[in-house]
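Whiteboard transcription, Tuesday session. T.W. wrote the structure tokens on the left side:
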């Protein structure tokens, strides 16, 4: 067996998928914890995966078979095909462990001067009519020290304690480890009544717990949110049957640990031309679906193509995995993919542990307030490493 295949034994994947619930104290309730076991093969594109399944259709008939993957913002993909993907029980009361990372930073805090310059540059494009909004981010390199699998698991447990979120993710693949407390669902895909449905729930609008009124009265937050809903309706419409796209929830306010977010939900029924028929089995054509919908509108901007061009120009470093997606698909049930925000990324080749944080910029954005927002979003993530942004 090739060495690359032997390494699959160590590919760990965990994704918590949750239902949001406005009647709950925390606004979300745990639904499933998905774990993957018995890795079979690795792929670096959805086309590779789909071609393999066409030539090996018997895998589709396995009761628990499916795949888990991450997709970077730059569309680099690592997919692992598993014999078993199933729900597990996991103690939610994760006790925070003692973990203090060696503080060998390149940057101890976000670069305020650079970020404000980026916001102002973005606003100039908006004033010129190039775009309506864009999501601009900053990166911290936290450490360049070697971290073990045990270290990574400890950070994940700590993050569950300091910043519990609906789409917690732990991926320990060959090249990267991803430790995420994402609150945002990118795509849910499932089959109902012989039809495949696709659903996206973008987040646009953030406020502290003691400032929730801002979300209800801010015209800036509402306008920004509605533009993203319209963008995602358009994206889902490209893969959906005519007249099937609906906004099932619009600008609902949800409470998280230390924040409120505005969330909407858009659904559609996947058009048959975007399905793959493999013998007597049918699955979504993931290559097509992701080509039309990825990356998410909430972390790019409107119009999406021009916003992404401006992001590439303005941001000082590549986003990499940040604002990409992680998820799974179980062939006989369906699956779900999140948006990788509030995420620590460990590059196993460079030993770099990093964090990005971003904010949506519109014509009404105050650069100082946007900088405070990216700090707020990062604070609880960093506390999983036993430090925060107390000196900012």
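and on the right, the sequence the group agreed on:
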């Amino acid at each position: 067996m090739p060495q690359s295949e032997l390494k699959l034994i160590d590919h760990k994947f965990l994704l918590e998928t949750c239902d949001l619930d406005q009647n709950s104290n925390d606004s979300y309730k745990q639904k499933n914890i998905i774990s993957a076991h018995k890795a079979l093969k690795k792929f670096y594109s959805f086309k590779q995966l789909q071609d393999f399944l066409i030539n090996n259709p018997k895998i589709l008939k396995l009761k628990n078979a499916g795949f888990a993957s991450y997709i970077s913002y730059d569309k680099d993909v690592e997919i692992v095909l598993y014999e078993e993907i199933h729900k597990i029980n996991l103690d939610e009361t994760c006790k925070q462990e003692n973990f203090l990372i060696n503080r060998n930073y390149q940057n101890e805090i976000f670069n305020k001067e650079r970020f404000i310059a980026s916001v102002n540059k973005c606003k100039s494009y908006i004033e010129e009519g190039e775009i309506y909004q864009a999501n601009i981010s900053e990166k911290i390199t936290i450490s360049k020290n070697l971290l073990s699998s045990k270290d990574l698991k400890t950070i994940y447990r700590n993050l569950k304690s300091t910043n519990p979120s609906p789409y917690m993710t732990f991926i320990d693949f060959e090249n990267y480890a991803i430790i995420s407390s994402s609150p945002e669902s990118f795509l849910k895909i499932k089959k109902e009544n012989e039809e495949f449905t696709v659903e996206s729930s973008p987040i646009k609008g953030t406020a502290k717990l003691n400032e929730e009124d801002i979300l209800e009265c801010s015209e800036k937050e509402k306008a920004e949110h509605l533009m993203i809903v319209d963008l995602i309706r358009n994206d889902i419409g490209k893969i959906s049957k005519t007249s099937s796209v609906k906004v099932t929830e619009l600008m609902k306010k949800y409470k998280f640990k230390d924040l409120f977010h505005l969330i909407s939900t858009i659904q559609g029924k996947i058009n048959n031309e975007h399905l793959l028929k493999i013998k007597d089995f049918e699955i979504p054509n993931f290559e097509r679906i992701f080509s039309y919908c990825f990356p998410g509108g909430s972390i790019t901007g409107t119009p999406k193509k021009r916003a992404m061009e401006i992001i590439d120009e303005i941001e000082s470093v590549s986003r990499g995995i940040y604002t990409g997606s992680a998820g799974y698909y179980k062939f006989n049930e369906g699956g779900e993919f999140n948006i990788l925000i509030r995420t620590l990324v460990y590059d196993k080749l460079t030993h770099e542990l990093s964090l990005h944080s971003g904010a949506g910029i519109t014509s009404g954005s105050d650069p100082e307030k946007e900088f405070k927002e990216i700090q707020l979003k990062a604070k609880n993530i960093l506390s999983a490493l036993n430090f925060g942004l107390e000196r900012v």
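Someone added at the bottom: The radius of gyration is 20 Å.
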